[in-house]
Amino acid sequence: MGSTAYGEWIRDFEAARDERAERGDPEWRTGVPLGPAIRRSVQRFQVGEDGDGAELITKAEAAGDAEYASAVRMFVAEERNHARLLALLLASGGAPVIASHWSDRVFVTLRRALGLRLELLVLMIAEAVALRYYRALRDGADDTLTREVAGRILADEERHVPFHCHRLRRSLGPLPPPVRLLVTSGWRAALAAVALVVAVDHGPALRRLGVGRFRFVAEVVRSSGPIAGTMR
């Protein structure tokens, strides 16, 4: 997948789509024991996943690469499926989805105000945080349904990060090396700040999942080094 073409990424998304269709949904059931802290946390992440992706698709199409635009549409479809899975998980626990959350409004506003390169950098902050969050939910939740849903989403996110890194590496490539370093260093600083905010906002849930606030932030920051190196 190191070429400039996106045919391999398209095949990767198609293979994941076919695997989901063959596997089917988890076995939804009622009465899943979502504690208050986990319920509130999942509700907030569900809002973040539940976007139509229209702005990103429009910018990808405007970039003039039909294969990339096609891959982005498949990425957006996977993110919307995450929102669907989380909504059904909440319903299994007797909890509704919420209409909005301030953190999602901030991210959406930033992303829509920027061009494709900067939108992807903002999106990658959310993706890097999501990697650690869904791993914590998969490993620390009390019930098998929550762990299964989190594991499915995490598997997708682990493919999304290299996909966006591939595009950002191409986008940042023409910049002088010092500028690339400045951009990725700024991205890492912004990620650390966002991870801290998420750790505070989701602190009760993280503790319930066995991941303290400090540990969550430290592990997100630690993961940002390899990601930034791939972008460069």
How is this structure best described in words?
The chain is built from 10 helices and no strands. The protein is globular and about 55 Å long. It has helices at 7-23, 36-49, 54-62, 66-92, 102-112, 116-140, 144-172, 177-201, 203-208, 213-231.
Envelope shape: globular
In which range does the helix fraction lie?
A: over 70%
Beta-strand segment tally: 0
Terminal CA distance reads: 16 Å
Largest sheet: none
- Rounded mean pLDDT is 91
Strand content: under 5%
What is the tally of helical segments?
10
Q: Which H/E pattern describes the elements?
A: HHHHHHHHHH
Which regions have little confidence, pLDDT < 50, spanning 5+ residues? none
- SS content category: mainly alpha
CA radius of gyration is 17 Å
Helix-strand blueprint:
Elements lengths: L6 H17 L12 H14 L4 H9 L3 H27 L9 H11 L3 H25 L3 H29 L4 H25 L1 H6 L4 H19 L1
List keywords for this structure.
single chain, 232 residues, mainly alpha
Write a brief structural summary.
With 232 residues, the protein is mostly helical. The protein is 78% helix and 0% strand. It starts with 6 loop residues before the first helix and ends with a helix.
